[in-house]
Predict the 3D structure of the following.
Amino acid sequence: MNSAPRGLWPDYPIRTQRLDLRPHRPADLEDILAFHSRPDVVRFIPWPVRDRKQTATALKTKLGQSALTEPGQWLVLAVELRESTTVIGEVLLKWASAIDRQGELGFALHSAYHGRGLGAEAATAVLSLGFDQLGLHRIQAVCLIDNIKSARLLERLGMRLEGHLVHSVWFKGGWEDQLVYAMCEDEWRDMKGRQPTGEVKVPTRS
Ligand SMILES: CC(C)(COP(=O)(O)OP(=O)(O)OC[C@H]1O[C@@H](n2cnc3c(N)ncnc32)[C@H](O)[C@@H]1OP(=O)(O)O)[C@@H](O)C(=O)NCCC(=O)NCCS
């Protein structure tokens, strides 16, 4: 049985232990500029280092990305640190295909907030959206081979390294290799079954 997802209109905010995930707002501009303008944040992602005008243009697009109504779309949510109400990053979920129930995960956080488990906390909530709410069968994530922090996060989430693609992308002036990680719905459910419910935990590969 393989029934195609119908779309995703989450109830916001999506709460994790320390974060609220929610649609972007026009007032998020300063917080978003704080990380979109950082070379260390965009080093392994396709965006350029953005100025205020470029960030405002990007934000305008994000304002309309709070639901998935058809395949091909990206859900793009602000990651708000609850204790300060600062937007410290963003997470993404692509509904790649309806009939095959495929999706893709993405994330970026301000570097001042790396190394606290916040990426894993936000990404776990996105996996839950994809598997538990949208009804995806498989979610993948692709990172550049030198993006060690991203690869470590994907491993920590329990995603499987499925491929090393050689010179698969022309990236900021040169050919780069990419790593493809993925998880299927049965693996997600097994993993969730091994964890206490109610709060987001960082899974470890057994
Ligand atoms: C990839 C990225 C989101 C990872 O963010 P992160 O929050 O540091 O990732 P994690 O949640 O996995 O945090 C893990 C680190 O926090 C540490 N940590 C501290 N407190 C923790 C806690 N309470 N729970 C879990 N881990 C904790 C872990 O030990 C780990 O350290 P290590 O990597 O040295 O082993 C971040 O580096 C980033 O935004 N990079 C720039 C954008 C980018 O490249 N995006 C990906 C494109 S593919």
In short: Confidence is low (pLDDT under 50) at residues 196-206.
